[in-house]
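PROTOCOL LOG
Step 1. Enter all chains and additional molecules of the complex.
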Amino acid sequence: MNYSQMDPAEVRRLIREGEITGPTSGMCAGYAQANLVILPKDLAYDFLLFTQRNQKSCPILEVSDMGSRSLKYIANNVDIAKDIPKYRVYEDGILTGEYTSVEHLWRDNFVSFLIGCSFSFESELLEAGISIRHIEENCNVPMFKTNIECEPAGIFNGKMVVSMRPIPYDQIVKSVMVTGTMPKVHGAPIHIGDPSVIGISDVTKPDFGDSVQIKEGEVPVFWPCGVTPQSVVMNVKPKIVITHSPGHMLITDVKNVDLKY
Amino acid sequence: MNYSQMDPAEVRRLIREGEITGPTSGMCAGYAQANLVILPKDLAYDFLLFTQRNQKSCPILEVSDMGSRSLKYIANNVDIAKDIPKYRVYEDGILTGEYTSVEHLWRDNFVSFLIGCSFSFESELLEAGISIRHIEENCNVPMFKTNIECEPAGIFNGKMVVSMRPIPYDQIVKSVMVTGTMPKVHGAPIHIGDPSVIGISDVTKPDFGDSVQIKEGEVPVFWPCGVTPQSVVMNVKPKIVITHSPGHMLITDVKNVDLKY
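Step 2. Run joint prediction.
Step 3. Record the structure below.
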């Protein structure tokens, strides 16, 4: 099946029916995909305030109504407990299971946070003629913990996680301009060049994802990463939190280009 | 005194000491001013979610920690209970008093929301050579209730309020481009032209503020307005809510140009 050219509603149906259980990268070209964090309502205010204070790493696309499994803005006819190919469930900070549906775990006090994903700006970078190394190398983007403290909010605090893409000198400005137009999906880089400035001691040893080659004449460019909110939530070890499994995103009905406005 | 060229910290000191009790328009040129809504914590989640869903009319600059009278991000050494020249207190939806300080009313469960203000983009429009009629006519900007439904969140819902500025045909595009770079202070217009399209029956009879002249060859241009959040809060008649008095804003340490990034 060529999922790249399919409609988001159709692919979500296949996911809901268990026909698709793998990563969503490359599916429904041109449409935004979203990270998921589901929390009980008693943590939702602090988390929403955290995202408000840290919009670069935690750009909110939608927050569901409490208890609701549907969304109102970024996708139609969603069942958020079923429409992601793989979920992770953490209890007291420990991964207790991966599921293709979390219907059996659903609670009336759950609030779902859908957070922008760098897939959207990568598609714009490619359109602008900027190659993306981890796509060329067919692996996951390298991600690093930094020394950049997030702005704390209530019980939530922690360091920013960044993703890294090597960019040739003559495309650095363009890569800033292109991603800078998309603040709802992390926006412009947070750092360009010397990794040690943001507390990264070895750029060949990412904390998450895979290592990629940095060629002669290329500079490591770092963007705020959607792993930040998950990492910050894990810090406080909530009784229960449900997230997507890495790479297994919600495919939305929102076109990437519409995230610019 | 020439407050226009003074430092925000110095003007806030004069306000705190009761030396300034009037409107802040024109003070501390180049620095952003902010709208204020203070609510008890039990309403704060719904209101924060409302602002997240209605960012054009309710662009949040900062949300205080519960009970705190200081701010962390947009201004230093603030006492939010004293540093605004005039406050309004509403109880059960009724205006019960105007005060130059609300220290005596402060509660440990208060949360302060500081919301972007169109003074910031007006200063950019003027820089770009676009005249602003209500400044020329030395009156308040005309504001209108529209038929545009805000996205509801919890107990909060209502119509968007807009401000109107007449713009000559040959400056409309420029006015969109200039304000579009400043989404944290309402951003681009929400409507250009025929007022009836957004439910305004008589553009010479504003619901708030003053009427201004629309000259031959000018078009009414409408921007989302910071009166929206106040109007929505009043709809639900909370036990207590404190706001700034119209035109009596918080002067921040943030330069208008920095609201672009």
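Step 4. Note key features.
The two ends of chain B are 33 Å apart (CA to CA).
Chain B has two domains: 3-118+236-260, 124-229.
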